[in-house]
Amino acid sequence: MRRSLDALVTHVATALMGADAASAREISEQVLGDVAGYFAVDASFLRRNDHAIRATRLVAEWPVRSADEAPDPLKLVHFADADPVFAAMEDFSEPTFIRPGPETSEYQRHIRVSRSVTATSVAAVPLRSGDVTTGALGFVKFGDRSWGELEVSALQAIASLFAQLHARIEAEERLRHVADHDELTGLYNRRALFREIDRRLSSDRDECIPILFLDLDRFKSINDYLGHAVGDEFLRVFAERLREQATAGDLVARLGGDEFVILPGRPMTTSGAYAEATRIRRAVREYVSVGGEQVIRTVSMGVALAAPGTATTTSLMRRADTAARTAKQAGGDSVTVLSAEMSAEADFRSDVEMHLPAAIAHDELLLHYQPEADLRTGRILAVEALVRWQHPGRGLLPPGEFVGIAESMNLAGALGDWVLHRACRDFSGWRAAGAPADVVLRVNVSPAQLVSTRIVGTVEAVLTEYSLPGAALCLEITEHVVVRDLDSIRYTLRSLQALGVHLAIDDFGTGASVLSHLKHLPVDVLKIDQGFVRNLGRNAADLAIVRAIISLAAGFGHEIVAEGVETSIAATMLLELGCHRAQGFLLYPPVPEDEMRALLVGGGDRQGDEPELPMERFRA
Ligand code: C2E
Ligand code: CA
Ligand code: CA
Q1: By alpha-carbon position, which residue is closest to atom 46 of ligand 1?
Q2: Among 588, 601, 283, 590, residue whose Cα is nearest residue 430
Q3: With helix as H, strand as E and coil as C, how does 498-513 read?
Q4: I want to staple 119 with a disulfide (CB 3.0 to 4.6 A). Which of 67, 100, 215, 268 is the partner?
Q5: PANTHER family from the xrefs (predicted)?
Q6: pLDDT of 502-544, one tens digit each?
Q7: End-to-end Cα separation, the chain, in angstroms
């Protein structure tokens, strides 16, 4: 049964309502086919006006052009050199009808030639948005066709539905544009750039992705001397120049300030990327006239490359940034490709960043333990857990190589939890096997673990899980953290102390200003920094500092531990100063779990009341 005109319009409305930017073309083609079928015409088309370039562009057509047909010469038609019918599409507001006769339209000629028909009639209906003609909807009949009044109003209704769809898609595109572009220059923004690098780095192609990082030399002086309006204008012109220099397919982005990035669309070798950067560096170094001044700025460029799967977006960007900074430090107006040394360091960091989360999850970490002993008796008083990473490719890594990176990646919590669990598990094992009950377990915590109170729950749960009294555990916090974050961590420290857990200030003496806060802090132990202890007996200043720290600790009732005791002279001095708790290579180095267990449990001959081996070592 034949639909009524109303039903046809309703059908079109429903179909177009479901369209978005991605599906618009396909749905439009379908609708064009349905409408053409209804009116028994041979072809139909939908065109959109691009007023910015004064042209009309084909958006959809029916029948759909197959891939092996010649490219459509009428895909984009500029009004200025169009035939009268196309020219009229720029701003026509009423439907136009062409009947067979002398060819008045390029379209008629095109149809005649391409479809081998002699006579055509065309109905073109404007798409309007307010007073603007945004496009045209057209129907072509091979031969003659006239349109009834009701048919024409149906066509107009359908055209207005298409106009609405256009407006909707345009709004969508504008929104997307705003989200992905830099407001000042119209270039892509950081977000869009990072997304594209993410995509390229996760491809499975074996190719090198280059990043060209540009940093304007002495841009600040333009802002300072000529004002921000001139600075902005300069950035706009500079961005335009960059865009001109970019090759099709390149992504040009402004990161912010005077930093820009070009992500070339094609893979490159290192030397190819260097050559490209050099070309751009030369091309952008030209006078710009802004605010009545002729201004010239050179650029420092950094180049970094990575193959998919070998770097993260952040690490690749950081390498390019580092390279640009090196170019700048060398005087600017130059290109630096990351040197082997610089990239080895950056590679190490990205390697750590990429593998650390899995290393924590898969137990690639391990703990060594270093005893703390009584210098008078040699008795082990405490044990400090020190984390290491058995890296599959790089061997045993010390904490200095990865703890900082873990913190910068928000992994401090995961790392800290792992250490707490493992240390308490080992420790409760030793206790069960006969280790003295008064030995304390010391665990280092990162500042990031203390700014939230999450750690309180973790510690409580771990103590319960391994049936440990709170007093058996001491958490160590480095002094500069205590100073910097005092207010935000005070509450956490108090809650930990409420569990009976002890707190130590590590590396004491390096953060100095904590002295004044000391009496307000819930702290039990001070660990004198290795730097002061190592040269005791050789350095009078260190001796004075250590003496001051010891008397201060006594004043507050804190326990004091000397770290980094390497020589017997240092040990002797400490004893004379009244500090008998010590940790250091002279006594014990950090050892694996089984050795630590043997020291605490094994034989009993190492762990008695008598002065022991380590003491004898430095008494001799
Ligand atoms: P720290 O807490 O001050 O730990 C003492 C460091 O000094 C250890 O280095 C230890 O091996 C070393 N050491 C011990 N005795 C001597 C000595 O007589 N002479 C010298 N020169 N060094 C000695 P390590 O294991 O490389 O740890 C370095 C730092 O990493 C630690 O310093 C601590 O701040 C941090 N760290 C270790 N484990 C963890 C952990 O599980 N979590 C967190 N957040 N940090 C940790
Ligand atoms: Ca420590
Ligand atoms: Ca320390």
Answers
A1: 444
A2: 601
A3: HCCCEEEEEEECCCCH
A4: 100
A5: BIOFILM ARCHITECTURE MAINTENANCE PROTEIN MBAA (PTHR44757:SF2), DIGUANYLATE CYCLASE DGCP (PTHR44757)
A6: 999 998 887 655 566 676 778 899 999 998 899 888 888 888 8
A7: 113
Q: Report CA(528)–ligand 3 centroid distance (Å).
A: 7
Sheet holding 259-263, edge to edge: 251-256, 259-263, 209-216, 299-306, 334-337
Query: Parallel, antiparallel, or unpaired for β 395-397 and 43-50?
Result: unpaired
Cβ atoms of residues 456 and 496 within 8 Å: yes
| Torsion angle in degrees (nearest 10) through CA of 472, 478, 482, 484 | -160
The domains located in the chain, with CATH, are: 2-180 (3.30.450.40), 190-338 (3.30.70.270), 350-617 (3.20.20.450)
DSSP notation for 104-116: --HHHHHHHHHH-
Count of CB atoms situated within 10 Å of the CB of 291 = 13
CA 604 / ligand 2 centre spacing (Å) = 27
584 within ligand 1 shell (Cβ under 6 A): yes
| Minimum CA distance residue for ligand 1 atom 3 | 507
Give the other-Cβ count within 10 Å of 209's Cβ.
Answer: 24
CA–CA separation, 402 vs 351, rounded Å?
10
